[in-house]
Amino acid sequence: MDKRIVVLGAGESGCGAAILAKKLGFDVFVSDYGAISDKYKKMLDQHEIEWEEKKHTEELILCAGEVIKSPGIPNEAPIMVKIIDSGIPVISEIEFAGRYTRAKMVCITGSNGKTTTTSLIYHIFREAGLNVGLAGNIGKSLALQVAEGDKDYYIVELSSFQLDNMYEFRANVAVLLNITPDHLDRYGYDMQNYVNAKLRILQNQTSEDAFVFWNDDPVIKKELKKYKHGKLYPFAEKKEKDTVAYTEAEKLIFTEPVPFNMELEELSLTGKHNLYNSMAAGISANVAGIRKETIREALSSFVGVEHRLEKVAKINGVEYINDSKATNVNSCWYALQSMKTKTVLILGGKDKGNDYNEIAELVKEKCCGLVFLGADNSKLHAFFDSFGLPIADTSSMQDCVEQASKMAKSGETVLLSPCCASFDLFNNYEERGRIFKECVNNL
């Protein structure tokens, strides 16, 4: 195999991949079309890895034996077109790292709930005293952890973009929470392309592996017949033919491999979507042989994820909730469904081919006002203006929070659950959520 590896994108995953490749004796070069943060420059320099920023030098890239691509770079990027035309294999950081570890992989994907479920599974494994790492979309780069001293287990959150460039990687436990339209702008606006990407989590599973999934998802049900997979562990709210986790008489019941139950009110996370996340996490831990007592305790003691239905403050009787991680319509649907009071909803950002019909009924039922936050809110106006709700149009977070606070009365909620990516006004959903919290706390 050619010993030159080129890494495109010098963020957490790219930097980690470069360090692992260098440690393994490859000739490594890192190229980022944007600016590289000082933190990663320092890491690359410490490992004597060559890098460039704000450009892609073709002669240094197109001589690679293999390219490790950041999940954020689309295949249509000019440098990617040339790499693909040159026949150079392109893989993800997770695929690369997976070659050099014998750790068991618990992998989580789905359109919604990934981060919460991944964090919850990691929490249970840690509480069980296992040697475990958190990787993928959250935590430290998997490649970096493999380079710095391996673990026995990795809990890996996988986006569809990461799965796109994974080929040999095997998930010992694959968790698929749900599949709803998301990122369609990256999949030719064809839902099936996105579905196929998600189901790549099953490739390479053997009969010794486990597939944990939501039994009532129509897309998963339809697609399951097409794929080879490990032993099935479906979960659902109500007991169904094969479900191994369900609720009954205010209890959450697990039936396999070790049967146990716990009171629903003991769960630290509330709302129906979080019930599913807790089921998926409980099954994954049960399959890994973690004691039922430990699973129960961990499902009770978990503290939620930042930017996911995160309570910020109560000001003048109004509750402010940061759900900046809701970057698609289905996420917002879950958030609205869990609201117990009338809600002023903040929507907007970079639209990824959204269909707002999914939340139309909930908006009519739960919302007392809408605040649009984006560089271009015309699509939101076209859809929501006829609902007869008060609407404010804003293009900065400060203005947005001020407008929302004017609209909301005591006893109501202001919910930032934007349905959209943040890239029109912010660097990412974390920055959007952080600035929202700052503006709320400054009210």
Quick overview of this protein structure:
35% of the residues lie in helices and 21% in strands. The chain has 443 residues and is of the alpha/beta class. It folds into three domains: 4-91, NAD(P)-binding Rossmann-like Domain (Rossmann fold); 95-301, 3-Layer(aba) Sandwich (UDP-N-acetylmuramoyl-L-alanine:D-glutamate ligase); 310-441, Protein-Tyrosine Phosphatase, Chain A (Alpha-Beta Complex), CATH 3.90.190.
Secondary structure blueprint with pairings:
Elements: E1 4-8, H1 12-23, E2 27-32, H2 38-46, E3 50-53, H3 58-61, E4 66-69, H4 78-85, E5 90-91, H5 93-98, E6 104-109, H6 114-127, E7 132-136, H7 142-148, E8 153-157, H8 160-164, E9 173-176, H9 191-199, E10 210-214, H10 218-224, E11 231-235, E12 245-248, E13 251-254, E14 260-263, H11 272-287, H12 292-301, E15 310-315, E16 318-322, H13 329-337, E17 343-347, H14 357-366, E18 367-373, H15 378-384, E19 391-394, H16 397-407, E20 413-416, H17 429-441
Parallel strand pairs: 1-2, 1-4, 2-3, 4-5, 6-8, 6-9, 7-8, 9-10, 10-11, 16-20, 17-18, 17-20, 18-19
Antiparallel strand pairs: 12-13, 13-14, 15-16
Helix pairs in contact: 1-7, 6-11, 6-12, 11-12, 13-14, 16-17
